[in-house]
Design brief:
The protein has helices at residues 3-15, 71-85; strands spanning 24-26, 36-39, 43-46, 54-66, 90-91, 94-108, 113-126. With 128 residues, the chain is α+β, with helices and mostly antiparallel strands.
Length: 128
């Protein structure tokens, strides 16, 4: 399986274990009750060597919530970060070399609507 699909499967499993979410979706859901998470498109670039395949992947998780204040979405964003950082380093056919938070942004849109973007840079090498 490709690095991207392997990481996506591991991330979905990790995110579905985050307490307090009413679902984790690949992209925007048709119907969902806040708070929920969307696993966005994975952006991958080559990170290989002469004799090993490697990928640097940007993994973006967007959280959506409806609440009076940002406290719950801040807690959920921390839980999402912890879940991503706890993804096992050894995955089928691949090994995670690094998992680094690239950006965390929490914003309030219209009254009572909150979103958080949790963006990670993950580097993977083909397992020997």
């Amino acid at each position: 399986m490709s690095a991207e699909r392997t990481l996506q499967a591991a991330a979905l499993a990790a995110l579905r274990a985050v307490a307090g979410l009413n679902g984790v979706f690949l992209g925007p859901p048709v119907r969902a009750t806040a708070p929920f998470a969307e696993l966005g498109d994975l952006i991958a670039i080559d990170w290989g060597t002469k004799d090993l395949a490697g990928r640097e992947i940007r993994l973006l998780v967007t959280l959506r919530d409806a609440a009076e204040g940002p406290e719950r979405i801040e807690t959920l964003a921390a839980g999402v970060g912890a879940a991503i950082e706890a993804i096992p380093r050894d995955l089928p056919g691949w090994r995670l070399a690094s998992v680094v938070l690239a950006r965390l942004r929490i914003t309030g849109g219209s009254p009572g609507q909150w979103s958080a973007s949790v963006d990670y840079r993950i580097r993977m090498m083909e397992a020997l």
